[in-house]
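User: I want to check something. If I give you two sequences, will you return the structure for each one separately, not as a complex?

Assistant: Yes, each is folded on its own. Here is the first sequence with its structure:
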Amino acid sequence: MKNYLLVIVLILNLQTLVNADDIRDFEIEQISLYDSALNFFTKKELKDGKRNFYQTNKYTTSAIKKKTFEVYEVLQVSYKTDDAKFEILDISGISFMNYKKCLKEIEKIALDFDKMFPNTVKDDLYTYINNDDPSGKSKVSDIYWFFENRDVIVLACYYIDSEYGKKNNLKSEIRVSLSSDEFNKFLISESQ
């Protein structure tokens, strides 16, 4: 039921943003790219949610779970580690969902995104192996919308129902991400 509600809320919220040309016009839990994380979370929440995903400490990502979130179960916000303003350079809304169901949902949501972001360059759905899982049994399916300034919105399904997922207490999920060009380039360089 919660997954059905997620889709309904997403679609209703998206319809108010038809033809958005700036990624800042799109919000996840009323938070947008380039906002200060401190406007929404305390320093303690950000510190307690800190995750060590990267080879360097140039950026920090915090995963936060709050009962007050209306759509998502978890938010991940990323910012430069030394930024006193905690400017959000990437934000992801995450809800746990069966992978096959997720693929159906992102097809529906993608149609709304296409209407909302007609002036973006869209990459079609692409599925690849999740490199975090050494067994090669986990995968990611995602669609990208690139804005003129190269900021990007990503709609993704993560299949993690493998031994790796069980061992690391991970679940399959749907994810909507807003990412600055700067942070996206960093992620690409980290994966090489």
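And separately, the second sequence with its own structure:
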Amino acid sequence: MTISLAGYHWQHDKSFSVVREGGYHGLQLILLQTSGIVKIDDATYCASPNTAFIIDSCVPHALSADGKPYMDDWIRFQLAPGEKEMFDELEIPVNRPMHLGDDTTLTETIKLACDLYNNTSIDNEKIYHNILMVMLLYLSAYHKKNNDSVYIPYEKNLYDLRKEIYANPSAQWSMPQISKDLGLSVGYLNKLYRQLFGTSCMNDVYTARMQYAMELLSDIDTPVFEIAEKCGYNSAEHFSRMFRKYACLSPADYRKKITQ
């Protein structure tokens, strides 16, 4: 296996959209760092952060932001003659999402691969082959452990719910109300949601709000208390605590960092 191109934490604004009608020759591993919309052939996925896709050679696909800034990691790679059978034996889902929850293993490995790929003092195909092998073995093991192929009841309802959360993070989301709307118990809803997306429903609410807050903080004229309200928080102090937990910076310090 060889790496053709690689990118780590590539950032785009909220208008980002790219259509690849003929796909690419070779395989692509794409790992979303933010939520986004991924279309592969006729299937459209409203993907959450830390969702991975392996897209097969020459398969039409499109990537776009979902109204917020978009960021992903990616590697394009080629299988050597004779490696297709090995790849198939790993039973990694192709052309559909793999939800990795809070596990950062893959993004850290992609960063290492990019560092090595961009290091002009290294010219060792074995290194590239082995690091790609690590990623594929990880995805295979993760998929088999979490059994993504198992049928999950209410799957469409849950995808619609997640799409709505990221589209309207300021709404007053609560598990009792969500479960009532879907006709499910809170415990059962939590179980299905985590099984499908690898994270809890309310953690997605939190992530959606923080991503929206980062976007709003780029406007230096909007006060923090107003941003807190727009993100669904009644208290600026509570919002600031949650934002610091997410970004490791206060809202004021984050704003200063991105507007300097």
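Because they were folded independently, the notes below concern the second chain alone. DSSP finds ten helices and nine strands in the chain. Residues 90 and 101 are 20 Å apart (CA to CA).
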